[in-house]
Structure prediction request, 614 residues.
Amino acid sequence: MNKPSNSQQTLSLDEFKARLPIVEIIGRYVRLTRHGREFTGLCPFHKEKTPSFTISEEKGFYHCFGCNQNGNALDFVMAIEGLDFGQAIQRLADITGLPAPLRSGKASTRAERTLYDANEAAKRWFQQCLHGQGGGDARTYLERRGLDASTVERFGIGFAPSSRNGLRQALMTEGFAENDLVRAGLLIKPDDGRCYDRFRQRLMFPIENARGRVIAFGGRALGEARAKYLNTPETELFHKGEVLYGLSRARTAARAAGSVIVAEGYMDVIALARAGFDYAVAPLGTAITENQLALLWQMADEPTICLDGDEAGLRAGHRLIERALPKLTPGKSLRFALLTEGQDPDDLLRAGGKDKLSQLLNQAIPLLDFLWQSETRQRSLDTPERQAALRQRLFDLSRSIEHAEVRQSFHEAFRQQLRNRFGTGASKKAAKPSMYIAPDGGRGVGGTRLAAWIENAATTGERQLLGPLVVHPDLLPDVEEELAAVVFTDPALEMLRQEIISWYSESEDLDRDRLNNHLCTNGFAKDIEPMTDRRPASVATAWYCRADAERADILEAWRARLTQYRQFGERRGIKQAASEAITGMLEDEARVQLLTTDRLLNIRDIKTKRGGRS
Prediction:
């Protein structure tokens, strides 16, 4: 049995533990949020709704104040995965790329070494079979795909013959125990009967960890088979959601190029490397996981995902975005290169060469643009209700982003795209009527001017409904149902309405500062600024947005405005009723403005002037 070579720096156990990136490691299992110098999240060791799990990156230590679990990164991996000390050491070495420390326990060291050695021996045997008498079909296939001898050698490609016991006999002859070969995933052990080779009549691709050690294999069928591709099952060394094919070779090239390409399969990665794109990797037959995203972002800020341009490819891209959104941080994102339907990178290289692929990669679509296209593609948006559903969907997606600044940037970008798509927002900013007052006082408004005025008036009314609630969130229990029943025309204010309702449904303390901080954190700072009484010259000068206004007065005024807004909505767009609408709204506005401390007297005067009409 060959001894493993170890040209890497050796570490003591204390050095190894000191160099473990505890936040990155625990972040694979727990969704973390930074608070000052620490990180917090929901404890993975007991059920809780409020985070009590804290990590100190500086001290390399975690602690849960709920269940008192604590320790370092090594303790965490042992506890969360149920591993013994030696298994956890090897697990962390594979995750981080750090060399495992030398240990005195001969039995456990031998057991860890044996699985690597078994995979390395299997790789050599598969390579021998490829170049042997039975490997003719496999060699023909590789030649047809354009792979020369140097490429085959570089990627360690081999061949598993159809024999059920070829590998088993060869490795047991070298001194490997049958049970170790089962543990390595090379043999299948049935409930009854003899063990037999897992891979048969397949082209074999070694899968390496971050340090370049063989931990598993992928086999492509060369004849009839139920599965075209077959991977090693989960083992002590191999967790397919935490490694990428080609990773060990791509890391250095990706950092030098400032980019990494994510293709679909083994042959794509090899074809890209042959064309000079050494920074290509692939997942192992499954959707990209959060752990694989973390590996990609270690290599490049914006990995490029190559997708088939058909429906299945677009859906896969959308699912990846939903998985990536919570983990986005400043500067870390994704780009998407859409291939012609039915093509893969290998096909494109054969048809158009390196220049064609370079052009495609340079035109890759940013994540936000791909998400917008995905959400609006083949979606009918011809009614307010459907437009509101789109706003809600985009709002829900952006809320999943954990990083506050990135979340706010997505909020603002979505609001701008909604304005551009539905033609609202720009004209409304130009006109800032304090109430529902037409630009010319209501004289002869018509045509385009009427339409523009109606939109401005609607937006103003929506601000007047939200303003009191931003300053007085304690009103929400009284008005929640009414607020939930309306749909605003302004996209930004509609998203703000939904966010206020969402905050109320989850909040136990209807505190004004808490609400304002929540809204600012989620990207609504510019929207609520004119609604608070912290600016001297703004909508906030209205009495109902003052913090010292009487609650009963505000509630009565709010409901009057809601009625006014509903009535106005019924009349919107009907030019023949423009004069009546303006007059009615001016009268209603006068009534609402007079709801001050002596409102009863003033209302009585209005009723008298109107002949008793209220």
Q: What stands out?
A: The CA atoms of residues 302 and 333 lie 5 Å apart. The longest strand covers residues 214-221.
